[in-house]
Specification:
The protein is an alpha/beta fold and 184 residues long. Helices cover 34% and strands 32% of the residues. A six-stranded mixed β-sheet has the order 5-4-3-6-7-8, sandwiched between helices. A two-stranded antiparallel sheet has the order 1-2.
């Protein structure tokens, strides 16, 4: 295991994983919850998180983004670190709804039709936010080449992505954190 991976995993376990009784976005109950933003946005490991994401991003990618707020931390730190290495990735957010003023639309940030896009998310259980963002980006005229999460807690996102013809990957999984998948 790389030093960066070890540091981020230890940080996730110490600062992001919570045990107790939780209701997930889907309405299902769980005995654990992960607030991975506590790690993604932590200055002591944010560059490590970005490096781990960059290791999974295909060389042909030209943009990274996803549904706000879940994708924003991972998107912007990864694009920033990539830029310091001479790898230029446009960064953007997909709004949850169409903006009714200004330029409108659901895309905020730097995305162009024809871009080869990695859709990112902090934590996925089912993968619905990733798919929603990917469909908005596809409809915008960009090409989705990968759906990428920092943590996959559910184990169902890969199958859902494959149904749409997309590949899914994650830096960490529920089993990496000592838990079983909690999909669907």
């Amino acid at each position: 295991m790389s030093d960066a991976r070890s540091r981020v995993l230890a940080h996730l376990e110490a600062h992001s994983v919570r045990r107790g009784d939780f209701t997930l976005k889907s309405g299902r109950k769980s005995t654990w919850f992960i607030d991975s933003k506590q790690t993604i946005c932590a200055p002591e490991v944010m560059v490590d998180v970005a490096q781990l994401l960059l290791e999974k991003i295909p060389a042909e990618a030209t943009a990274i983004g996803g549904l706000t707020m879940g994708a924003d931390g991972a998107t912007f730190i990864t694009a920033g670190v990539a830029a310091t290495e001479g790898r230029l990735l446009r960064a953007f957010s997909v709004r949850k709804e169409v903006k009714d003023h200004g330029a409108g639309g659901r895309i905020a940030g730097s995305l162009q039709p024809g871009d080869k896009v990695v859709i990112t998310e902090d934590t996925v259980t089912r993968g619905t936010s990733l798919l929603e963002a990917a469909k908005v980006v596809r409809d915008f005229g960009a090409e989705v080449i990968l759906l990428l999460a920092v943590v996959d807690r559910g184990g169902t996102a890969a199958a859902m992505a494959a149904e749409e013809g997309w590949k899914f990957d994650a830096v960490f999984t529920a089993p990496d954190l000592g838990f079983s998948y909690e999909g669907a």
